[in-house]
Amino acid sequence: MSEFVLKPLGELVRSREPGCGLPGEVFSRPDVYETDVHVFFHKHWIVAGVTADVPEPGDVSVVDIGKASVIIVRDDDENIRAYRNVCRHRGSRLKEAGKSTVGMLVCPYHQWTYDLDGSLRHAKHMGHDFDATCRSLLPVHIKVVGTHIFVCLADEPPADIATLEETMTPRFAPYELQNAKIAFESEIIEDGNWKLVMENNRECYHCEAGHPELTLSFVPESTGASADDMDEEGRKALDAYNKVNAESQSDWESEGYICSPVEALSGDVVTQFRTQRLIIGGNGESQTMDTKVACRKLLGNLTRRDLGDTHLWTHNSWSHVMSDHAMITYIIPLTPEKTLVRTKWLVHADAVEGVDYDLTKLTEVWVATNAQDASLVAINHRGARDPGYIPGPYSPTTETYVDQFVGWYASRLKAHGY
């Protein structure tokens, strides 16, 4: 009997049939998981929170990313900083994952004490020759874009985050997202590999059957439907969508709201992202069950409700920003087969629950959608683990972005020597 030999990751990924999914092994092997965390969550820029996680000086948000941990803090000068969650004495964790408020960062082991700017202020019993200036907390690269907090654990972070920043800053500007608060947040641990979570997010092939709440506001024709597969009624609906979309974009752009798609998804791209302003179905205002705004106090100083949905994808997040609220989700892999999906709903900082917005109306579409996606990812993961799984072809119309994501994943592994 011949011995079963595992293929190296690079060889396994390169064995993929063009236009088809990845081999099932990449979703469950521990060595692949460790490589993914190292490459895609320690070497790339990732979304790790929003500015409303740390609204006041002394507010702290700690995010664990594989074996690493990052402290995000707003300092006394209102700057948002990030540090390795490692004491400079003997390496103890300074803070557990989650949020808190501190005056200083104090190691629970030997009480080494750090200012919010990372400098070591107190370390007892270290002798007269001890130089505290050499023992500041190790900084983590950080970039705030709109409200999104991006961090990168690499010594030299990818420089093309500048493209994302230049693209998204003017698109987010009208919403003044740094003057928003978290109305609600949720965490789901999905029973699936992080790549399957992202693949699921990159297509709406499953939306018609899988997301009845979301499809009230998503226009079906905007999700990659092909006229070749449509009857006459469907083609008329597609033509009507294209007409309304063009008119809406012309109207928005005349008032300075940027609409055009920007795709940095393949080729030599390191920091992968996509953005576009899309029309919303029904009443056209927000991703709610009645497609009207859930919060009457609009973001920023906006007065217009029908501004569509400005979305942003990165390789670990998806966001939808509308006139009344923003929904921001990011993921962190926990094991080869479990992924943390964290979602935050943001409203204007001065909005009052029960007066300006109803929490159920604000959240019900994406609460339902996230739960449905968790179930879909779980059955996808279980099937992809099956020895009988042979990856099939992607839809050339509705799964284009999945194919691009997988191609980007393969190219980034190759760039890192796999």
UniProtKB/TrEMBL annotation:
Q: Which InterPro entries match?
A: Rieske_2Fe-2S, Rieske_2Fe-2S_sf, Ring_hydroxy_dOase_asu_C_dom, Rng_hydr_dOase-A
Q: Which GO terms describe its molecular function?
A: 2 iron, 2 sulfur cluster binding; iron ion binding; oxidoreductase activity
Under the heading Pfam families, the entry gives: Rieske, Ring_hydroxyl_A
Question: What cofactors does the UniProt entry give for this protein?
Answer: Fe cation
* PANTHER family hit by this protein: CHOLINE MONOOXYGENASE, CHLOROPLASTIC
Cleavable signal peptide: none
Species the sequence originates in: Caballeronia grimmiae
- Any idea what this protein is called? (Fe-S)-binding protein
Q: Which UniProt keywords apply?
A: 2Fe-2S, Iron, Iron-sulfur, Metal-binding, Oxidoreductase
Matching entries from SUPFAM superfamilies are given as:
Bet v1-like, ISP domain
Q: Which residues form a coiled coil?
A: none
The Rieske domain covers 47-151
Which family does the entry's similarity section mention? Belongs to the bacterial ring-hydroxylating dioxygenase alpha subunit family.
